[in-house]
Amino acid sequence: NGLVDLDNAISIMLYFGLLTDLYLKLEDVTHRFKKPCIMDVKIGQKSYDPYASAEKIKQQISKYPLMEEIGFLVLGMRVYHIHSDSYETQNQHYGRGLTKETVKDGVARFFHNGYYLRKDVVIASIQKIKEILQWFESQKHLNFYASSLLFVYDGSSQMTTAWLNDSTLVEKRSLSRGQGPGGNTLEYYNNNICVISSPENGKLESSVGRGFSKMYALHKKHQSQISLKVETVEQDNLWKSSACFSQEHLNGNVIPQLEKVFCHRPTVVSESAEVEVRMIDFAHVFPSNTGDEGYIHGLNNLITVLQNILDT
Q: Can you tell me the distance from the alpha carbon of 30 to that of 14, in angstroms, rounded to the nearest whole number?
């Protein structure tokens, strides 16, 4: 078919002396992300190889006994928080402190940007892991020990936005208070929530992106009976929720009602987030005549944990 197998090509070049040195090329998987969030998760029920001494085996098991049961261990993470424009870092002691009861929340921490849970990243991560799982289920030649999965996503890729009446997106912090497109009045509360007051028919319409956990609105006009329509809209997203209230039903207290509207989260995202899930650390890979059941067990349990994070 005109294609040359890389392994055969290297073998031929080595045989004829055309290639004398081999090099391992390293890739920086964070290079395309502005605010890379990184997590290292060791996969498998055993972190020691078949030739490890009894002392080595005991030492490795004592580090995290739960690994033999769940099949993975969080070795560390670095998460970008939007609200503080800073990173939270956790080392291996954080992961070793997680129990069966806390491991879900411990892993979920990697996907939280300080405002909300990045469910789009969780969904994309599950899909990537399933691809790796499919390969492991199909091969019966290699067993991996003390190998890891490296998770990387961009913490700044989903800036909080306000969806304006003329379909123009304005990023968080880009406007303070003033006139927006179409004569709308924009007002920010605590510098991150946008309220749009439309001059038409005395209506107050507010729209925010999926990223807000709550909506705090200050309504200063039209004290009589008006309709208040609150929508959650995201460009090209299937998820949309809205609620309409009259001023008399709100009894002048808008905030609690708005909190009820925005307290839930979408479980479906229209576009997959940019996520890297890479296999790393291959120092302990051994030939085998059977499938790598320990690695498969760990992948399945990690997928289950991520799915549980989505369902909460």
A: 33
Residues 6+ apart with CB under 8 A from 39: 74, 76, 77, 78, 110, 150, 151
- The verdict on pTM exceeding 0.70 is no
Bridge partners (DSSP) of residue 191 are: none
Q: Which of 231, 263, 272, 300 is nearest to 118 (CA)?
A: 272
Distances (CA, A) of 235 to 137, 159, 209, 217, 270: 38, 13, 9, 22, 9
Q: Give the number of other Cβ atoms within 10 Å of residue 121's Cβ.
A: 26
CA distance 206 to 165: 9
Bridge partners for 87 per DSSP:
80
- Which CA distances in Å does 24 have to 4, 27, 132? 20, 10, 22
Query: Over the stretch 91-138, which tens digit does the pLDDT of each residue have?
Result: 999 999 999 999 999 999 999 999 999 999 999 999 999 999 999 999
Interval 168-221: pLDDT, tens? 333 333 333 444 444 444 333 333 333 334 344 443 333 333 333 333 333 334
C-beta separation of 189 from 217 below 8 A: yes
C-beta separation of 285 from 141 below 8 A: no
Give the 3-state secondary structure of residue 276: strand
Contact (Cβ atoms closer than 8 angstroms) between residue 116 and residue 211: yes
